[in-house]
Structure formats: structure tokens, C-alpha cells
Amino acid sequence: MIILGIETSCDETAAAVVVDGIQILSSVVSSQIDVHHPYGGVVPELASRKHMEAIVPVVNEALEVSGIDPKQLDAIAVTQGPGLVGALLVGFCFAKSFAFALGIPWVGVNHLEGHINSVFLEENPPPFPFVALLASGGHTSIYHVTSHTGFDLVGQTRDDAAGEAFDKVSKMLGLGYPGGDVIDRLANKGNPKNIAFPRSFLDKSTFDFSFSGLKTAVRRYIQKNMDTYQEQIPDIVAGFQEAVVDVLSFKVVHAAMAKGCEHIAIVGGVAANNRLRQKVRQEAGQKGLTVHIPSMELCGDNAAMIAAMGYHYLIAGTESGLCDDVYSRVKLK
Ligand code: KG4
Ligand code: ZN
């Protein structure tokens, strides 16, 4: 089944052509980072307008690169939510109209489910059941994944998402938006042991997270060291990153053990973090667990994961209708 995937939930306009939910023929991602960078975060109305400009060229490019004619498409999968409503509507309306014009089925996909299914676009995907840590700009959750469409929530953040913490700390230090990638690179130049920031493990019996205390600790450190902190930025970000990574890796490894799973998946934008990738592999390896992390291109928002997820809905007979709408927030089933 040849599926065109479309993703416009936040600040990336993406389209991809994927066969049978596993083989990527093309994956095009057009980022709006330069547009939002001066504002220190995503401006929803600007995001919608930029999606409007980019959607047709991005879809055309994905089709051209794949060598697939629109008439050869079997279906379209598009992100339905969660995300920015105005941004989602651009991709959703486009997908609805294109599918109608081509006379093919289409399906709205949950963005978070798409991230989890991104591991199936790589070699050696995890067998079911496995435990997945989804860490992105808007979400930080652990799921017990029982099938392509079966997700039980094991734990989630009680305040900020991990990616959000990276973005806020980056903003505090004047490093710009988004913060994950820049902190990842700068942390290599610092020593994570020089400044000790708190790790919030909460109650040991929960797999929930909390990152707002850590964010406040970084803010206090900056306020207390107003005259000197600029020279300490590499140590500050290294210490902050180590605190986030310690908690994420501890919780996901222990969740897998609690659920009796031998396989762990790490997905979402924060899964691109080099220290997290290294630490989870190290800690899981010590417990005899296998870790699956998508390649960098599939960690951030992309449409290949949406096409992969849509495939499993479509083969199960789930399709969307012409009166369906997007949603800004939703839990996984
Ligand atoms: O999944 P994603 O692309 O979009 C959402 O669904 O939110 O995740 C974006 C988030 C941002 O907060 C960004 O700062 C973070 O992922 N991120 C990273 C890295 N690359 C992106 N966080 C830590 N280290 C990275 N290398
Ligand atoms: Zn995402």
C-alpha cells in the first residue's frame, strides 16, 4: 500500500511517501525555525501562514523524489492532532481535498502515535510488547506498547515536557529557539559535574516526570551569578542536560523492567539528544535490555511516521470522513 503522509502540527511542513508502513520512498521536511527564531518560540498564526505557502511545494517534492505519480497513491495519512489548530487545519484540509480529488481513502493520525511508530521505519524494530519513551517539545510520556495501535500510559510529565525545558533554558541563556540541538552541542564543551542541578525522580513508585523545578534551579543559578554566568554557559547546559538525561533514562529503564519488557524505544525530538542516546543504551545494556532509537531525521517531526501510522489504521479498516475536524489535545487510546 503506497501512502502519502502529511504533517503540519507545529513548525514543520512535511510530506512523505511510504510503502506498507515500513519503506520510505521520500521524506521532505521544510522547517520554519528561521521564521520563529526571533520570537523565542512558535508563533501560531505565522506557523499557519507558512504551512499555507509550503504545503503544495513540499507535497510535490515528496512525490517527485519518490517517483510516484499521484494516481499510484493508495491512500493519504495526515496528522489530525494534537498540535496548533491553525497549523493542523492546513495539512488536514489539503489531505481531505487531495484524497477527494483522487478518489482514494484518507485517515487522520494522532501525532504521538506517529512518533511511536517511527521505530518501525528502521531496521530491527522492537517486538511487541515494548516500552516507549516519547519526549518532545509538548509531551514527555512512557507507554507500554502492545501493538501498532495499542498504547497504555505508564507515566507522564506533571508540568513541563523535556523538550520544553531545553527550549526554556536555552531562552534564559540567550541561545535562541529551539534549544535542544544548541544545548546538545554546547554541552560537549562543558563539564556536567561542575554545577549540580536537582533531579526530580518524584516518588520511586511512579513513572511520572517533573522538569519545572530543574528549570527554576537553572534560572536561580543565573540570577545568583549575573556577572559570571556568561562564561559558565557550557557547564550550565551540561549540568542541566545531565539532570534531564539521568531522570529520563532511569525512568524508562525501570518502567521496562516493571512491565517485564526487554525492548525500549526512545522517540520524539528529544530522542535526537546525543547524551540521552548514549546513556539509555548504557543503562539498558547493563540490565540486558535492547534499545531502539530512530535515526536523527525520524526523531523530529516528519511525515514518514504519519504515513507509517496511517497504514495500520487503514489496513484495519479505519478511514476518516469529509466532515472530520482536527483536535488540539488528546490522549492516546
Ligand atoms: O518531536 P518534535 O520535533 O516536535 C514536537 O512534537 O514537539 O520535538 C521538538 C523538541 C524541541 O523542544 C527541541 O528543543 C527538542 O525536541 N530537541 C532536542 C534535540 N533536538 C530537538 N532536545 C534535546 N536534544 C536535542 N538534540
Ligand atoms: Zn512531534
Structural class: alpha/beta
Number of strands: 10
Low-confidence stretches: none
Enumerate the strands of the largest sheet in spatial order, edge to edge or round the barrel: 3-2-1-4-5
Cα radius of gyration in angstroms? 20 Å
* Residues in helices, as a percent range: 40-55%
Q: Write down the CATH topology of the largest domain.
A: Nucleotidyltransferase, domain 5
How far apart are the termini?
Answer: 25 Å
CATH architecture of the largest domain: 2-Layer Sandwich
Largest sheet: 5 strands, mixed
**Total helix count?**
11
How would you name the CATH homologous superfamily of the largest domain?
ATPase, nucleotide binding domain
Average pLDDT score: 96
Overall body shape? globular
Q: Which ligands appear in the coordinates?
A: 5'-O-[(R)-(carboxyoxy)(hydroxy)phosphoryl]adenosine, zinc ion
**Beta-strand fraction estimate:** 15-25%
Q: Can you tell me the number of structural domains?
A: 2
- What is the succession of H and E elements? EEEHHEHEHEEEHHHHEHEHH
Please identify the top-level CATH class of the largest domain. Answer: Alpha Beta
Q: What kind of oligomer do you see?
A: single chain
